[in-house]
Amino acid sequence: MISFWAFGLLLPAIALPISFYGIKHNFKNWRIYIFIIAVFLSMVAYSYTPVKNEPDIIRYFEWAEQLADMSFREALFSSVNGQTEIFVMNLLLWLGGKSGDVHLIPAVSVFFVYFICFYITCYMAEKESISPKNVLSYIIFALLTMNYYAITNNVRNVLAFCLIGLAIFRDLYQGKHDWKTFLLYLMPITLHQSSIVMILLRLVLLLPGNYKVVSILVASLIMPITDILYKVTASWASSGNLILSIVRNMLYKAYWFYRNHNSEWAIAVANSGSHRLAKAVYITMAVILCLAIYIYQKRLCKQDQEYLNSSRKKYTEFVFYIGVLTIACAPMPMPEYWRFASAFLALGGGVFVSIYAKHGTFPYRLSKIVYILTPICLALWVIEFIKCDWGELVFGALCMNPVLVAIKDIIRLLFL
What we know:
mainly alpha, 74% helix
């Protein structure tokens, strides 16, 4: 398998179909196969040149060029566009800027988002003896439904969610409470501060059963609650306390997301048929999958007493809460729901595969609706790439070599 590692790194496009075949027919080596698939996706992201109306990634490229003129320490503690304490993001931007290769930034983000998705899915499937055919089906489903275009352009938000999601997976499902898990809890907060929401979901799992019902109601009523908390915590912005400042910043963003109906972007989204369709599709999918999890949990709790205190149940509840938050984003005028929807699909792979494998028809045959929505999800993000240079994307997909890219960037960092 060492030779295949080398082959996959040198020619990921050719190794890609072999990896899909290997997941189904040689599942014991799933780690290398998902690695190759994630590398291929990262090389496509590396080859992507953003268009002018994609402010996120263009802004990150500009920040990377600014940080390139600073020392490592200066860049790490720098305030970028008024944002502070984003050390991990600053590190990623500094590496991209210092190497003169800003396309490294979306490539790294895409690799980890999809690798984490496939890793959690395959690990849970292996532990629960689920058919590799079902695993491959979900991987293809995730590739079709997760908004690859938005994940590439957004860079940090979904990545931060997935990193903390991996920490929670290690904590709850794998029972790993080592320094790596602690680091995975801590680092994403300095990548995107909204990722602290994932930690709050982890804390919800510590509450007794009745309080979990209350937490679901709170998520459902999150808009008026956000309004109240935003007004109550007004003094926190100037408190000088780092934690209070982060919480206040999160509340400000949440309030702004819910109440921002008059900005140019909000108006454009409101007038866009594709945006309205995307919201309807992803919110509907979140409702269906949450309902499936609820029915699945209810059945297992009745049939299997050991499941009541199992690590699988706890992690499944965590995934369920991400779905609830996705639904709670529906009233937002801007498409912020997609970030939670992406995390929901990425971190929930093992849960959804287990539900489908153990209840082949899916609860109440909900899978049929999901199947109908899947090609719509694909079309929605593929259409976005029409504005891009397809020649660059195809060349990157077929010919880009991650080993040569890494060697080139290391040489630039060390000697230029």
